[in-house]
Design goal:
With about 140 residues, this protein is of the alpha+beta class. It has one domain: Thiol Ester Dehydrase, Chain A (Roll), CATH 3.10.129. The chain is about 25% helix and about 35% strand. It has a five-stranded antiparallel β-sheet, covered by helices on one side. The longest helix is centred in the middle third of the chain and has 16 residues. The chain is elongated and about 55 Å long.
Length: about 140
């Protein structure tokens, strides 16, 4: 059974979203689209001179996937807030799996409001992002 925002209860989970694997092409395309040309994400020599083994994904690329998870589930018009905290880097070659769980449901001004705990993990289980979405559960 698919859980939708109007019937969601505390403990319900959103359908997972998987993105990747992250390639160098993905990073270059994201840099161009976002305007974030930080060389740590696209220039191997720069990354290695900074002490990294390789370039790594922009944090905002993963954050966009968490936003996509929430809006795919609830719709953009129901999203009220999205916050995240970066907890680890996403290396080249990793696949990102985004998940969400409803942790609060309450009424405010005649509308159901949901708080959804969000997380992004890469293939080895490392959590790279944690966050929260506030979603209006009623139209």
């Amino acid at each position: 059974m698919t859980i939708i925002p109007t019937t969601a209860q505390v403990g319900d989970t959103l359908p997972e979203l998987t993105f990747g694997p992250i390639s160098r092409t993905t990073l270059a395309l994201y840099a161009g689209a976002s305007g974030d040309h930080n060389p740590i994400h696209i220039d191997l020599d720069f990354a290695q001179n900074a002490g990294m083994d390789d370039v790594f994904a922009h944090g905002m690329l993963s954050m966009a996937q968490l936003g996509r998870l929430a809006t795919d589930w609830a719709g953009q018009d129901r999203m009220r807030a999205l916050s995240t905290r970066f907890t680890a880097i996403t290396p080249v070659g990793a696949t990102i799996t985004c998940s969400g769980t409803v942790v609060d449901r309450h009424e405010e001004h005649g509308r159901v409001l949901l708080t959804v705990k969000l997380a992004a993990h890469i293939d080895d289980g490392t959590q790279t992002l944690r966050g929260e979405a506030k979603i209006c559960g009623t139209p």
